[in-house]
Amino acid sequence: MRPREIRHGIYWVGAVDWDRRLFDSLIPLPDGTSYNSYLVQGSQKTALIDGVDPTKERLLLENLDALGVKKLDYLIANHAEQDHAGAIPTVLARYPDAKVVCTPRCKGMLVDLLMVAEDRFITVEDKETVSLGDRTLEFIHAPWVHWPETMLTYLREEKILFPCDFFGSHLATSDLFVTDEGQVYEAAKRYYAEIMMPFRTTIQKNLEKVREYQIDLIAPSHGPIYNKPEFILSAYHSWAFDEPKNIVVLPYVSMHDSTRRLVAHFVGALVERGITVKQFDLPVTDIGKLAMALVDAATVVIGTPTVLGGAHPAAAYAAFLANALRPNLKFASIIGSYGWGGKVVEQLSGMLTNLKVELLPPVLAKGYPREADLKALDSLAEMVRQKHRESGVM
Ligand code: FEO
Predict the structure, then answer these.
(1) Among 168, 216, 285, 328, which residue is least crowded by beta carbons within 10 Å?
(2) Could you give the CA distance from residue 113 to residue 81 in angstroms, rounded to a whole number?
(3) Beta-carbon neighbour count of residue 283 at 10 Å?
């Protein structure tokens, strides 16, 4: 896509990656993504804010050529991750006078990760500014969004926030600005769940920091630009601050139908008790959907058969993922089946140590569930209801 003007002298010059389907060899990208790079021209200096993934750096250079950019003074690196910073060596080679502007920690990371020469940097402290002449860039340190070196850039005169990953969405679209709020809400929530949720407490602090600024536009480095900033600010506020809801997330896997029968009965017992259930058949689940469900849930119950004495690897993966994403869960349990024995409960509960959850009694059936197993599931559903009531989520 060619450069697109946002305001006079301010352009989107990034790349839309319509075809990418996996990020970090882990995160599904059902709607592709974009790497947004922004050119800001002042009366005296020109700055490029964030780069693109190295696979798309040719498009970035073509966009700069299309605008006739002969000299670049500053390359603002809000974040050292390669999907934005990976093009820095190429941009620096094209523009020999350009300096990379970043936090001191980001400088170290760009030297380590991308072998950028030490003399190409200007490091900035929190709230420090750089003048472009008639325009001023202010740098807001915001560590752990989602790496330790991250910062945001605020263009004072136009009140535009360039927050890089913060508020971003993996969404390939021809829309420069948000038009379909429903689509962007889901993509941004997916992004929050997968990338930002593990750092929820620092996200809370950085949200409060952002609230100190008057903002007309939020221009993230993934997904469309927010011309109604309150839309994404209030969504983030709710994801990061709200108490969990009356929801049980139930990721499960079944091999010979025993665990599936347990899950079906348990889901019915929860629904009868007024509890919302989100059920995920792990071998065919988009893990981004599972991550999104964990943003709001009060309880997770993992369903698994016993394989070689332990949990099915798909269930272990779900436990590992939930533990890594650190959602604001309050309760957890395990249901499942076995043929002759095993250590499913010890194994899975031992994988949830990051979560501040109360473990509720597990239910394991030998083979197909009998009447006693179904009654145990009813009791577990009743306990979930009581716990949700006592903790104020229903
Ligand atoms: Fe979009 Fe953390 O990189």
Answers:
(1) 216
(2) 9
(3) 11
Mean pLDDT, rounded, of the chain: 97
| CATH number for the domain formed by residue range(s) 245-387 | 3.40.50.360
* Spatial contact of 222 and 165, defined as CB atoms under 8 Å apart: yes
The ligand 1 atom at the shortest distance from the C-alpha of residue 150 is: 2
Question: Hunting for tokens 């620092």 — which residue is that?
Answer: 202
Q: Dig out the tokens for 210 from the structure.
A: 């952002």
Contact 152, 162 (CB under 8 A): yes
For range 143-162, the mean pLDDT = 97
Closest to 333 (Cα-Cα) out of 391, 276, 266: 266
81 lines ligand 1 (CB under 6 A): yes
40-73 residue pLDDT tens: 999 999 999 999 999 999 999 999 999 999 999 9
Distance in Å, CA 20 to ligand 1 centroid: 15
Give the residue whose CA is nearest to atom 3 of ligand 1: 81
Rounded Cα distance between 290 and 270, Å, is 19
- How open is the CA angle 140-143-148, to the nearest 5 degrees? 135
In the numeric block, which tokens belong to residue 368?
């197909």
Distance CA 186, CA 290 (A): 13
Radius of gyration over every alpha carbon of the chain, rounded to an integer in angstroms = 24
pLDDT single digits (tens) 90-106: 999 999 999 999 999 99
61/44 Cα distance (integer angstroms): 21
Pocket of ligand 1 contains residue 170 by CB under 6 Å: no
Four-residue CA torsion sign, 43, 44, 50, 56: positive
* Pocket flag, ligand 1, residue 165 (CB < 6 Å): yes
Extents of the domains making up the chain: 4-241, 245-387
Please say whether the structural domain 4-241 has been given the CATH code 3.60.15.10. Answer: yes
- Quote the CA–CA distance of 343 and 307 in Å, as a whole number: 10
* HSE value, Cβ hemisphere, 13 Å, CA-based, for 193: 22
Read off the pLDDT of each residue in 72-88 and give the average, rounded to a whole number. Answer: 98
Q: State the Cα–Cα distance between residues 196 and 202, nearest whole angstrom.
A: 9
